[in-house]
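Incident review: delayed structure delivery

Summary: a single-chain prediction request sat in the queue longer than the usual turnaround. Root cause was a stuck worker, restarted by the on-call engineer. No data loss occurred. The affected request and its eventual output are reproduced below so the record is complete for anyone auditing the incident later.

Affected input:
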Amino acid sequence: MKKTKKVVFLGALVLVGAVFLNSVSVSADENLARGRSLAEARMALEQGLLPLAGTGVLGIAHSEAEGQIVVFVEDEKAKERVPCSFEGCPVRREVIGTIRVFSTQLAEPATAVSQNRQSEVRPLVGGTSLSAYVPDLYYAGTLGMVTYDNKMLSNAHVIAMAPRTGEFLNTGTPIAQPGSADGGRLCNRVGELESYVPIDFGSQARNYADAAVGSIDEGIGVSPGQQFNEVGNYRIEGWAKVSSGDIVRKSGIATGVTTGRVAHTNASLWVEYGDQAAYFVDQILVEQKNWSFAAQDDSGSAVDKDGGFAGLVFAGSDTLVAINKAEHIIGKLGIAVQPMEGQYSLTLSGSPGGSVTTPGESMFIYNKETVVDLVAEADEYYEFVEWVGDTDTVSDVHAAATTIRMNGDCSITANFEQASNPPMYPTVTTQDATGISPTSATLNMQFSMGNYTSVQVRFAYKKSADSYWSYTDWASKTADGAHSESLTELNSDTEYEYTAQLKYNNTLEGSTLQFTTAIPSTPPPGAGCFIATAAYGTPTAHQIDILREFRDVVLLENTTGSQFVALYYRLSPPIADFISANSLLRTLVRELVIDPIVWAVEATESKWQN
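Output delivered after worker restart:
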């Protein structure tokens, strides 16, 4: 019902309700004389309360055990509009807050709930994220269960309604697992909307279920009845009626696996869907405190009693959760909640040391005579031994990849044991650099082969200040040992980083070590002028030969000159690197600095040569 209408007619509705209540109230003796039952009195009161919708009167139930009618109201003010007795029957007025359909809009899961529920889960199991896929709309609810006739069961407002407008979607709309709010897109399609129970928002309507089913695409693995559980999945099979006081269980993406106590099994109540409301009858109500049983995004969760399907979570407040009954859902959608004639279950598991990867570890339902592929994979240091259990129709119990023909219910385990010759993997250790000089160093490593016949090794290295790495060539090795590589043409007084690498069918790295090249006391033999080389673009320029000769003949022959040369070779490499990276700067340095120096040296050659 539109909220604006609720405001406009508020006064009139209250007046109608007051007149009704005053007109029907009689004594207990009169009620007994009429022979009216508690249920009949409740029905009469319910009809009188319907005109009060929108004034805080939310719904009604009755308890045969307590001999009273229960009226649900939104707040204390609304409580005053409801009488304490009706036709001689006590009326308990419960303040429960507003009952709203559980949102599907990005609620945060409880801290103890596995994030895997909101990821892609195959085979499909109940208690995981699901939604219709509608472009530009992002939401998610809970997949209630995969039925035994291979349908996805959830709420209509999860897979059959647009979350913002409340409009019903066309059959054939894609369904994604996980739901779109959890990253599901068309590539996560698992099926499409097949049918739903329409919800009538009229003021005189009586709704029984917010439920829908989707068909499942070919090739999508499913596990009918299975429910996601952080401590081990459980199974729903068959259906169950519940009574007040029963303990029921559900599995949802927001609050995980929880249990709660049934408060009522015959409730009628108004449920808000955005700016409109729908009246639901014959609903189960479960008590909760501060969302302890179900919350936003748990919409569609399958509720069970002792493993029997009891209904679907769809709405509530922080004190009560509303659940559609199983019989209304099964009857209106025609689904199977237990294996059908001609179907058999296959339960698969793996012993410690491995797992069944195809079709997975769970309980699966197949038609009679179906041939099912089985694949077992061993963990590291383990090996597959055999299939054990109901293996009469397994084609080869000693093969990790085999098949089974379904001629009855089967429970099979893949058996693994520790490998007799576990694989030994190569290792590599980076060792300290040796032979460090101003322009060179030797990198070292130790490595072992494991039980591999050949590996390759190399070094990665770089200046510590740089972001990019250089590499030596891969060297093939066929036995344990050491490996070294010499690096030359390094910059003096510079820190370098390096690490040893080893490649087999994987690539290993040792730890990263550092070394710093030495400071030259005299120029390396044959070394030229770094800045001049950068300016001329080549170490073979005629001008550089003149400068080198002047260095050797004049500067290195006295203490002051030698100190100058050592300082130059310490400071000039980064300056040369900077100059070489800029063509304009190279020209300016060459023409304004180096060429004048070369001219002066050449002009005075006759003097310094003697």
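Verification: DSSP finds twelve helices and 37 strands in the chain.
Action items: add queue-age alerting; document worker restart procedure.
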